[in-house]
Design a protein that fits this description.
Strand content: 15-25%
CATH topology of the largest domain: Phosphoribosyl-aminoimidazole Synthetase, Chain A, domain 2
CATH architecture of the largest domain: Alpha-Beta Complex
Shape: globular
Structural class: alpha+beta
Number of helices: 9
Largest sheet: 7 strands, mixed
Number of domains: 2
CATH class of the largest domain: Alpha Beta
Number of strands: 14
Helix content: 25-40%
Radius of gyration: 19 Å
Order of helices and strands: HHEEEEHEHEEEHHEHEHEHEEE
Amino acid sequence: MGHGGGGALSAELVEHIFAPAFGGRTLSALGDSAHLELGGARLAFSTDSFVVRPLFFPGGSIGDLAVNGTVNDLAMSGARAAYLSCGFILEEGVSVATVARVAHALGDAARTAGVEVATGDTKVVETGHGDGIYINTAGIGLIPDGVDIRPERAVPGDVVIVSGPIGQHGVAILSVREGLEFGVEIQSDCAALGGLVRTMLDVTKDVHVLRDPTRGGMAAALNEIAKAASVGVVLQENRLPVPPEVANACAILGLDPMYVANEGKLVAFVPREDADAVLAAMRAHPLGSGAAIVGECVADHPGMVVARTALGGTRVVDLPLGEQLPRIC
């Protein structure tokens, strides 16, 4: 299960098995989406599979995730998502009513995100060979002229901004999966981020890096960026927007919120001179109202992420080995 968790084991699987087997310059970039040039157009192209358990959770469902996860990968390239493909893998015995409920949730999420489901596929597997419903989506979108967003563009001096409270999705999934109660219902942050990204690009097209911290949370996303750009990242731990209910749940369960998955947040690396204006624009958008500057990019300790604690100490924020909470997307 650790190999599917978005951490070090996942990276090893891609680096040693899939990348050598598939080859190709485009794949080697290993971004949230591939950047393609076709007929004079600059395209972003991404695919993702969704195996979340349970199928429905506070704040969303596997149908919402299947849309938002893919359109957010495109948005992290600055692309405006246009079309999706959708493949349903159904386990024998799942009710038609459940399939319909998921399909309607997926359709509603696509309309909200402004994308069209243009093609699809359905397969059915025998009882015991699935978990109700799995979904695969692929998406394609246009990258605007003058936009070049990729992990390699992070440079010392960049300011690190997170778009809002972290850790909500992973804790929401765990609470319903395990029947845990924390005194208040914690809802997933599942949302499509394309509109927020367009708001940021209206301020400046020179956004260096965007990443949605899904599996492996903030820790995995920042480590991947630091490694790709050969830079260091310094976080101010007391600036990380962790909701009290998430902090309390993580304390009870022995989890670190920086490693818990999100499905409606982004991390941005922007030039220092643009940071205040970008932050103000983000806070004016409904999906960025809780945005905060949480750190900076430095020349020291390239490839490493460190956090400065409230007590004045420093700790290394490693890439997680696997996933603290499997099957969260």
